[in-house]
Amino acid sequence: MLIYARLPPESYAAFYTALAAIIGISLIVKALRTPRLLLPPGPRGLPVLGYIPFLGTQLHLTFTKLGDLYGPIYKIWLGRKLCVILSSPDVVSEVVKDQDAIFANRDSTVASMIATYGGNDIGFGDYNPEWRKLRKIFMHKMLGNSTLDASFGLRREAVKKSVREVYGKIGTSVNIGQVGRRIVINGMVSMIWGGSVKGVVEGSDLQGLLGELMELVGAPNVSDFFPALAWLDLQRIEVRIKKMFDQIDRMFDLVIARNQENMEEEASSQESSKRSTDLLQYLMELKDSDDASSSISITQVKAMLMDIAVGGSDTTSSTLEWAMSELLLHPQAMKTVQEELIQVVGLDDLVTESHLPKLHYLDAVIKETQRLHPAFPLLVPRRPSQATEVGGYFIPEDTKVFINVYAMHRNPTLWDSPLEFRPERFLDGETNWNYSGKDMKYLPFGSGRRACPGIPLAERSLKYVLASFVHCFDWEVPKGVKIDLEEIFGITMRKKEPLAAIPTPRLSILELYDE
Ligand code: HEM
Hints:
By secondary structure, the chain is mainly alpha-helical. It contains 18 helices and 12 strands. It has one domain (about 50-515): CATH 1.10.630.10.
């Protein structure tokens, strides 16, 4: 204080000027020394529209070609939306492993928000404690091994029904995709509410409604690229998806009401011990639970039903159709699968889920099918909750991040002869191939916090249905028909031309087809 008091006023001014100069210079030096991160490279596109006019309909192919030009991390602008596309194990690992928590949000769209009850589900909900609660319930309780074991009977009924149906069409051409979709939807529906509510889906076209809903969720929407124009709903996607959604929602309301009536009736007739359980019943019990760590709202119940119906149906049935197409194109692989089935099951019996762990070649066929034809070729896009760095580039908050597994699964630097269908590569004995998402070059179910929670059910359903199809029947492509493997990009990647083939019976006891 004394010293200050003795200094003349001009000295204060000089002191503060010098101090400001030193701070200013050190900030400039620091800024110059810190390398400024750039956005990833990428094509220019047009003013305002960005790359929208050049996307085409086969997004996975467009993105793969751009990856060949710009490398494993590049950007495009779709209107006002910045998108980054990743396609090498290194950069993907930075996102789904090193910075998984930052990239744990989905990039919601107008359509996905409507279809998921405003993001009250697992697929599009934001990463927060409520989402973690739902995901835990979904994975450990609803799709845990004991729940799946208990519901095997319901899946078996769905498979047997379809085997009977195909047997009725022996010698004629069968649309395999359609039969597969029906088995998967019926199996899914009976697991969800078949134990307690009968007959709600018969007469209502759940399969058709889900198909249309998925198509609209996957369609590029101007409202997402130019949010200021969303109120115009230029492509009428919002109007159309609301219509589909309302019909499915009404079906859920009906099912829930019936479930409640049945539970009340059973309680009053004191038959609750005989009650058959299903996922809906389990969810309704959580809805009424007093335990805050597991209680859920009725909207969350319906959003989870939607997740199972949407997430589990098209993915599983498309993969089945691709697997059958590859087997029909590769008779030696078909023969090997059928021989394995004779050894493990025998021609005098039907496949059951207890046989599945012994069907190693069949498992390799399904893994190879998913390598070449991943159901979500670009996974489900993620969105960083803060600005960050990937592959040495700047990634702003809220960028839409695509992971191009289609390109990685076909990359010749990662796979030998990547375009060949060779199930044996999954039987090499050295690598423990699985769907955990730890090996970044093989991600059919994604990886990290947002990886598919339906893997246990998907794995069982794929093996069980495919094994039953090729064990019960020999299949032949109709004369003059050539199987092609052209894809259509949508939210899931489907086969463009439906697969048709002619079945003939294989089992030695014909009564098995009528069981
Ligand atoms: C062949 C069958 C299936 C395939 C190939 C598949 C694949 C995938 C993929 C790639 C994702 C995104 C993962 C990521 O972004 O990292 C996903 C998410 C999801 N899948 Fe599956 N799936 C299948 C079956 C199922 C089934 C049977 C269910 C439910 C019963 C299901 C429910 C979900 C849900 C709820 C999500 C969103 C997860 C989240 O955002 O946290 N999936 N699936």
